[in-house]
Amino acid sequence: MRGKTLSRQIFSNFLIVIVLSLVSVGAFSYVQSSRALDGQVKQYMEQMIDSANYQTDSYLQAYELLSNAFTSNPDVRAFMEIEPNDSYEFYVYSEKIKEFARISVVSVITLYKQLNMIYAVGQHGRSVIYDNQNVLNFDPVLVKEKYDYLMKMTPADGKIALLNMSIREVDQGSVVTMARKVRGPSYGDTNRGVVAIEIKLDELAKTWDRVSLGKKGFFFIVDDTGNYIYPRSMSERKPQDELASRVLQSGNQTFTYKYNGEERMFVSRKSGYSDWNLVASMPVEELRRPVNTIRTTTISVGLITLAIALWLASRFGRSIIAPIRWLKDSMRETEKGNWQYIDETGRTDEIGGLIHSYNLMVTRLSDMIGRVYEAELEQQKNALELGETKLERQRAEYQSLQLQINPHFLYNTLETINCYAIVQDSTEITEMVEAMAFMLRYSVQTNLEEITVANELNHVRNYMIVLQHRTGKEFEIDVAIPPSLLLEKMVRLTLQPLIENIFQHAFPDGVEPHHFIRINAKKENGLFQVFVEDNGIGMKPERLAELRKKLEQNRLAEPEENGASQRGGIGLMNVHRRIQMVFGEAYGLSVDSEWGRGTCLMMTMPETARPKMRG
């Protein structure tokens, strides 16, 4: 603790006490609340599913009474014993059975609304069907097929079976069939047929729809064979799929299962009456939402409380050590060279005296060091000016070496020479190689000393020889320089970059027969000027203004700032600056251009003057 400041000690102690209190209280509250909410949610789902199970059983028991009445009806039993071809008996018993069905159903309004149809089918293949409104005659072959299925799925001991089927295709999936086998009048052990009651699921579903499970919760029913009874959307799923299998295996247990990519909780209850499995499902995320809300609230309140407490602790600490910290910070700034004064107004205690002595010391030191700095800054300024000039000259020579020949131009030229060598034995190869040799020999001399106009024109001639062979197009440059000016001095590698720049930028659509490039020179008023003129596309006014502004800055072009110009040669700004570095800043390159008419580049140098090398 001795190594810490007083404010940090106060802050640390407050932090430990507050964090321990918040963590212990928050964690205990969160764990207990989570357990209580989880239990309540599970209990709520179980109560909902138990209620739905009870109502479903009560609903089906009413139909079981109707089924008992039909299976014990003497006319129904007698119908099972008639001869298949006895039309008279079939007519008599069918009328009695339908009348009995009508009376039984109409007397109970609930049964009347929810009943789809009642039918009795005997082993002899004859059937009586009451559809709650009309008498229907079905194809015997169709009835026989349905009868075989009913006989197979209905228990032989007279118990009822709930089947997900209908004898009418249009009703398939929208009804559930309650079937029971019927014995003959003799009450022997032989089953003579089946009585089936089709119940509309839409009416029964009104009971299930009252199961409230939130926005993403749903309720469904699976029978013992794995068929989905409700809702109709799930009845299209394959029987005994993975979800149905999990439900059948769980019995009355609660389980979690990933359904449609979402983790969900399933609460299953098996009906003791119908052998249906009633299942309620809700997303685990939705179930955990109240718990997450408690957690978020606990964390938020804890963080807010922690922030307020830390702010109070920090403020308390500052109020104790603020005067000492002012003096300490001021001394630290003084060590860095920043003369920091402290306000001593109204202080008459020991700290006030210490602050006064500190301010006096700072005043004297700042005066002494200020005089020393002024002398050193003057010397450094002079040294920097000389060093900057020397550095810029070295940089210009480096850029001249680095950028003297376009790498892409050299690469394309060598490719052209290679093609010539492979395809034909031509004198053009010799001419190109000689021109490239002269260009390279001329370019490797990287000093900024001046040479003659004739040397620069010869370098341009070699460049044109290579360019014409590489492009396959002949183009002549009009040289109008008087012979008397061919031995005038100029800076090395300044004329060829201007020609290359014209080819790259003045003729964007290619060189046409009407295009020209003209080189001229004159001496006037003690100046030697070389003009390079073309009738290309020219420059837009804003581009011309931008270029002139950069030339006025008298700086070498940075590669990242002048990437486009670098591709055309050393670049206009570098040509301009190198002329200035050889002859002085009064000389250099100027540009005059008109959009759509052409461009004129003018190099200005002293007349027959010896260069004044700087740096």
Structure overview:
The chain has 615 residues and is an alpha+beta fold. 54% of the residues lie in helices and 17% in strands. It has 18 helices and 17 strands. The chain has helices spanning 6-71, 74-79, 87-106, 109-114, 140-153, 201-209, 232-235, 242-250, 284-287, 289-335, 350-403, 407-423, 427-443, 453-471, 495-505, 541-552, 563-567, 572-583, and strands at 115-122, 127-130, 161-163, 175-183, 191-200, 218-222, 228-230, 254-259, 262-270, 277-283, 450-452, 478-479, 489-491, 517-524, 527-534, 588-594, 598-606. Its main location: membrane. Residues 374-404 form a coiled coil.
Question: Summary?
Answer:
The protein is an alpha+beta fold.
Features:
615 residues, alpha+beta, five-stranded antiparallel sheet, 18 helices, disordered C terminus, two-component regulatory system, His_kinase_dom, transmembrane helix
Please describe the topology of this protein.
Layout: H1 6-71, H2 74-79, H3 87-106, H4 109-114, E1 115-122, E2 127-130, H5 140-153, E3 161-163, E4 175-183, E5 191-200, H6 201-209, E6 218-222, E7 228-230, H7 232-235, H8 242-250, E8 254-259, E9 262-270, E10 277-283, H9 284-287, H10 289-335, H11 350-403, H12 407-423, H13 427-443, E11 450-452, H14 453-471, E12 478-479, E13 489-491, H15 495-505, E14 517-524, E15 527-534, H16 541-552, H17 563-567, H18 572-583, E16 588-594, E17 598-606
Parallel strand pairs: 12-14
Antiparallel strand pairs: 1-2, 1-5, 3-4, 4-5, 6-7, 6-10, 8-9, 9-10, 11-13, 14-15, 15-17, 16-17
